[in-house]
Design a protein that fits this description.
The chain has 106 residues and is mainly alpha-helical. It has a single domain, classed as Orthogonal Bundle (Multidrug-efflux Transporter Regulator, Chain: A, Domain 2). Helix content is 64%, strand content 7%. Strands 1-3-2 form a 3-stranded antiparallel beta sheet. α4 crosses α5. 20% of the residues are buried.
């Protein structure tokens, strides 16, 4: 288990209950359940089976809420966010690859 100091800086640590997550993202608990059904976020489960959300997941949920509020269908918003996330990760990996390649060439 991570040290408590490490948890404060960990965007993936499931620190928020469903009620608090809904409050933070200005959405309903049902909206969060629908994001789970749409496969945008999969909340962690406590030992008692309660959903727990990380800061990273809350950012995705807030982005989805914003897009839905602007008229984008929920499923489309989730797909767009997933694709944006995948693109960001691919770009990050490409940068890392390029840095290693340049270091090897030196």
């Amino acid at each position: 288990m991570a040290q408590s100091d490490d948890m404060f800086g960990d965007d993936d640590y499931p620190a928020y209950t469903m009620g608090r997550a809904a409050e933070i993202t200005n959405s309903s608990q049902d909206f969060l359940r629908r994001l789970d059904e749409a496969k945008l976020i999969t909340p962690f489960r406590s030992a008692g089976g309660h959903r727990r959300y990380s800061r990273y997941q809350l950012r995705l949920a807030a982005r989805a809420r914003e897009m839905v509020d602007q008229g984008t269908a929920l499923e489309a918003a989730c797909r767009i966010i997933i694709l944006e996330d995948q693109l960001e990760e691919a770009l990050r990996q490409n940068e890392e690859y390029q840095r290693r390649r340049q270091a090897d060439a030196s």
